[in-house]
Amino acid sequence: MKYGYARVSTLMQDLESQIQALESEGCDKIYSEKFTGTKADCPKFKEVLSFLKEDDTLVVTKLDRFARSTVDAIQTVRGLFEKGVKVHILNMGLVENTPTGKLVFNVMSAFAEFERDMIVERLQEGKTIAKQREDFREGRPNKYSKKQIEHALGLLEIHSYKQVEEMTGISKSTLIRAKRKTF
User: How many angstroms separate the CA atoms of 86 and 60, rounded?
Assistant: First the structure.
């Protein structure tokens, strides 16, 4: 039996292209989840691993969908090979349980980890440069201007949070955070 596994890291990302690729590959059952890959404990991936048995095939679109490091990838694939499970990574091909197949897989895993590390490094460099700007703010940008927040905080002197929220559209939690920052 062919089992497909699709994963994206955030709720905003779309699983559809991965699922379509797995369907095109003829997967009998597809497991999917929106779960960060930085945690090794992806529930649906653990579930699919528990069903795999000898002569089954695990199909994923890319290596980084189930492994975050070279060590993690090698251990996972080694465990699957020990169970007699085949591994097919669509952008790499069938990973064969041969010395050559293992070598190619290990090299590709190392490159995937290197690529992820380079992305993180570039992000950190960009963030360091951005922090040097006077107007840098960590996190999401404010939905409301400073003037709107100040006006809403002024209204709190004579109105409740609920009333101010209804008048301005600024949530109670945003007002509480803003109030904390001003005192």
Answer: 11
> Counting Cβ atoms within 10 Å, is residue 42 exposed (0-12), middle (13-18) or buried (19+)?
buried
Each residue's pLDDT tens digit, 110-148: 888 898 899 999 999 999 998 898 888 777 777 888 899
Please identify which of the residues 9, 17, 160, 173 carries the catalytic annotation: 9
Instruction: Write out the two tokens for 54.
Output: 């000898």
Percent of residues, the chain, with pLDDT higher than 70 = 97
Active-site annotation holds for 109: no
> Residue 101 — very low, low, confident or very high, per pLDDT cuts 50/70/90?
confident
